[in-house]
Amino acid sequence: METVRPLDPHGPLPPRQAAGSLLHFPAVPSRFLDQPHDLTICLPPDYDREPGRHYPVLYLHDGQNVFDDLPLAAFGVQWGIDTTARALMHAGLIEPVILVAIGNAGRERIDEYTPTRDAAHDAGGRADRYGQMLVYEVKPWVDHHWRTRRAPADTGVAGSSLGGLLSLYLGITHPTVFGKLGVLSPSVWWDDRWVVRQLAADPGRRPALKVWLDVGTGEHRMVKGARLLCRMLVRRGWRPGDDLCYYEAEGAMHDERAWGERAGAALRFLFPPGG
User: Fold this and answer.
1) E strand or H helix at 101, and its extent?
2) Do residues 38 and 79 make contact, with C-beta atoms less than 8 angstroms apart?
3) What CA dihedral angle connects 204, 205, 208 and 209, to 10 degrees?
4) d(Cα 85, Cα 66) in Å, to the nearest integer?
5) Is 155 exposed, middle or buried (0-12, 13-18, 19+ CB in 10 A)?
6) What is the pLDDT of residues 65-106, one digit of tens each?
7) Domains of the chain by start residue, with CATH
8) HEC-encoded secondary structure of 183-220
9) What is the distance between the alpha carbons of residues 25 and 253, in angstroms, rounded to a whole number?
């Protein structure tokens, strides 16, 4: 039987599949998690034309659902963030950025995307392990093979729903790695609003994070939690309009189409031209 080797950050690229303009690496194993994860890279349009340039990076959860050129969306609808990002780059409205999508692990998604065990759902609590995969395997691998800017101010992480909760958690626990957070429709309700209670209980200096936080007013379960989280971030010292942007999308529902419609605004806040 062939031995399955985990991702070697400094080893050769694993086998990849064609996926339009994307670089798609399916079923990449990790030493931190039981299930492999698909990894998909979207390079800026000028990447090959400017060999001396280095780029910021945005890591995206639920990678099956974020790219137009990757026809693997579980619900048949993608964010289309690759198309949106390219248009914004061409228009000079964001700086060129490398997008890295990490596919979720299916049935393991809830466990991997949550920081605690939620007794009400009898699930969760492996976000630290997912974070180790991202910090110690995926990010070094991306930094080794592509021309990246590696400082936290040049490195973002983003996701929606439980992926939004995960992005916030990874920023709080790894502020020396991730400095930009895209927190879309976060599942603040998880484990009796654990993340809000953690922010309230931590009197220490807040991490230097730039946070995009949003919710749709049609997401009845999510709105109250997002507003509560926004108030807590402000109480902890984040400054609306500076390092915090909170947005409520009128009538928007909890789905990929709505997140795709807001992805451009999130990119413009997190990666403005000129950095």
Assistant:
1) strand 98-102
2) no
3) 40
4) 11
5) buried
6) 999 866 555 555 789 999 999 999 999 999 999 999 999 999
7) 17-270 (3.40.50.1820)
8) EECCCCCHHHHHHHHHHHHCCCCCCCCEEEEEEECCCH
9) 31
